[in-house]
Amino acid sequence: MNNPKSNRRYFHVVSLSVGLLCLGVTSQAKADAETRPSDSSPPNVIMLMSDDQGWGDVGFNGNNDIHTPNLDAMAAGGMRMDRFYAAASLCSPTRGSCLTGRYPFRYGILAAHTGGMRVGETTIPELLKKKGYRSGFFGKWHVGWVKPDDVSARGFYSPPSHHGYDHYFATTSAVPTWNPTVTPEQWESWGNEEGKPWKGGMPYVQDGKEVSENMAGDDSRIIMDRVIPFIKASKDKPFLATVWFHAPHEPVVAGEEYKKRYKKFGKSRQNYYGCITAMDEQIGRLRTKLRELGIEKRTLVLFCSDNGPSDGLAKKGVASAGPFHGHKHTMYEGGLLVPACAEWPGVIPPGTTTDVRCSTVDFLPTIANACQVESAIKSSLPIDGINLMPLLTEKVKTQERELFFGYRRLQGGIDGKAIISGNWKLLQEAKKGGKIRLFDLSEDPYEQNDLAATSPERLSVLSQKLAEIEASCQRSRDGADYRY
């Protein structure tokens, strides 16, 4: 897998008894230096994530109806990643993968509201703390409850402060994208009543205290109102800001000024499109502030969504996975591929694109390399992601790797899994009695031609690989990676 001629920065290969190759960490100082800026100064890092935004729900992927000028400018100012995958086709498992560099089946959050982040995991803010970084989390957490008294059978208290963040402004899970403390009109799902307080009326917690101030209007703006002061206060030392928007997750509501921009469309599109544009406006506000403070050239900004578009909104034609088949909760490309881009002026060449397959598990090793903290990664924790800095800086054009995806709700018979090896993809549909499918993505990127019946040898090889990865993940999940 390692090719010294390609100048790649990889993680050492760990051989498992079943023959599975996992990516671990080793020290390669010379290779590290070649993927960093010439002054070797650790950058600030900002991790932006939208919620249920499909691959096709952004201008830089060809949507001419939704206005996303700031995300488009960010993509144009750095690298657009055309084949970027979420680790799962729904939120909580993907979010944990961003922080740990590990597959959801490895660290044990297999679906939404089914657990919390274990303190035994090593997260990005914990790594960066060793380098003197100040860290803040803002938005939708969803890998543990943020209020200690919110007792539930399906999760537990595990706020950002338990995982390396110095400051946080967070909700446990979804809120309305406009007026987040109030249940919106015609919304009665999840035990809420129209016009009544949303989840008690104070879903946000800031550093352990419920928040009631500045809670009206656009939720993306409410989040960014907390991000900007954190960045201003941190501008003279390295910082990590993790900003996970609720937009455009349901209940998706836009303010009147945003809906007016889409008056030629129906109500659903006005809210959905307007909500995304409102979030985009706040990303523009963030990019402007970085330039006002003169720190944009020492700040790495990463953006992606947590999974494909909402099932219901995709089926109505409101949300879009672009040309790809599937949506949230499916293991098809439309459920896993998400819009993504990265910007670091002076380091990532502007106007670049890649169709190399990348994933949310790659954030930790990439940030660890850029910020020079790879040596702090515990060797006892297998890392599934790879360092993308050679790709982002165009020192390499290809990356060889396998990718595993999955989520599970066994009480409903849901056990969705997929593996991509080379250009071949094997998936098990995420529904009771889900079928096994096989696709050649090089010839069939939109998954129209199932080859499971006609390519039995290929099916057997990928099935074995999938079983090996799942077995390795189960050992991790059952305690092999943790000290007692």
UniProtKB/TrEMBL annotation:
Family: Belongs to the sulfatase family.
Name of the protein this chain belongs to: Sulfatase-like hydrolase/transferase
Keywords: Hydrolase, Signal
Domain of life: Bacteria
Gene3D superfamilies (UniProt xref): 3.30.1120.10, Alkaline Phosphatase, subunit A
Sulfatase N-terminal domain sequence ranges: 43-370
Annotated signal sequence range: 1-31
Organism of provenance: Novipirellula rosea
Signal keyword on record: yes
UniProt keyword Signal present: yes
